[in-house]
């Protein structure tokens, strides 16, 4: 789970975000994600992975590591990452 507060401006964020989505979809064990962002820049993205091996593969991807470094320098005023295990998930639809 990645909660972030964006800096103003795009600074290539949109294109990089699209590329990260393309890359994570190719990670074996990636199950999907949910994401939302407010007009004020607060965003929450929850990525679902089959196991810790899949999480490690995503974390170790060279392009993802580069994007994380850019995020710390350019795109985020603040962020928090939570890694958690989902024991149960259900909804109305």
Automatic annotation (TrEMBL):
It comes from the Bacteria. SUPFAM superfamilies: Dimeric alpha+beta barrel (SSF54909). Residues 18-69 form the ABM domain. Transmembrane segments: none annotated. It holds the Pfam family ABM. This is ABM domain-containing protein. It comes from Streptomyces alboflavus.
């Amino acid at each position: 789970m990645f909660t972030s507060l964006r800096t103003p401006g795009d600074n290539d964020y949109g294109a990089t975000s699209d590329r990260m989505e393309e890359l994570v979809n190719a990670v074996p064990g990636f199950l999907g994600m949910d994401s939302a962002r407010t007009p004020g820049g607060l965003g929450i993205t929850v990525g679902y992975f089959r196991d810790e091996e899949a999480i490690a593969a995503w974390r170790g991807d060279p392009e993802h590591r580069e994007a994380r470094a850019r995020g710390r320098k350019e795109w985020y005023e603040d962020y928090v990452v939570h890694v958690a295990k989902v024991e149960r998930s259900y909804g109305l639809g």
